[in-house]
């Protein structure tokens, strides 16, 4: 994947400022195209990352019960409007065969998936699938809760509205009581 073209972004931002009737050379805006290019390089750095890379390090541990990391904060950009959405991800899995990963790796995978133009539904499914493909657990559950600025600051204008998406794989897709148990932990 190629790196971010700062010059192109700067030109595009200058054109946007002109298109909305602003003067890109006025004092408050003169460095805005550079700042936006730098920001885009940061908020879209996940385009060059595979979330499965974070699961290369595994540990042998005789544990085949729930591992849950909840309230992982994330920020992403809606691919439909290029405005932020943000919230928390909750990632749980049941290890198989003593194969566990570092807890921080789950948070790093969330970050890698979120930092690209995205849809919340895709973030949720991609995280779940990455855990399944990398760790081959008995089951995976991912719950993502987010507030979307495309619904808050424009359009329907409903601040505080949250969207919740889930992805369940393996035992969590098959067993409603297991799902309910994890959802209870997430709510508490």
TrEMBL record:
EC code: 3.5.4.16
Domain GTP cyclohydrolase I: 9-186
Keyword Metal-binding in record: yes
GO terms of molecular function: GTP binding; GTP cyclohydrolase I activity; zinc ion binding
Subunit structure, interactors included: Homopolymer.
One GO cellular component, as annotated: cytoplasm
UniProt KW keywords: GTP-binding, Hydrolase, Metal-binding, Nucleotide-binding, One-carbon metabolism, Zinc
InterPro entries for this protein: GTP-CH-I_C/QueF, GTP-CH-I_N, GTP_CycHdrlase_I, GTP_CycHdrlase_I_CS, GTP_CycHdrlase_I_dom
One Pfam entry name: GTP_cyclohydroI
GO BP terms, alphabetized: one-carbon metabolic process; tetrahydrobiopterin biosynthetic process; tetrahydrofolate biosynthetic process
Family: Belongs to the GTP cyclohydrolase I family.
CDD domains for this protein: GTP_cyclohydro1 (cd00642)
Signal peptide start and end residues: none
Record's keyword annotation contains Cytoplasm: no
Alphabetical list of NCBIfam families matching this protein: folE, PRK09347.1-2, PRK09347.1-3
Origin: domain of life: Bacteria
UniProt name for this protein: GTP cyclohydrolase 1
Uppermost EC category: hydrolase
UniProt binding sites for Zn(2+): 78, 81, 150
Record pathway: Cofactor biosynthesis; 7,8-dihydroneopterin triphosphate biosynthesis; 7,8-dihydroneopterin triphosphate from GTP: step 1/1
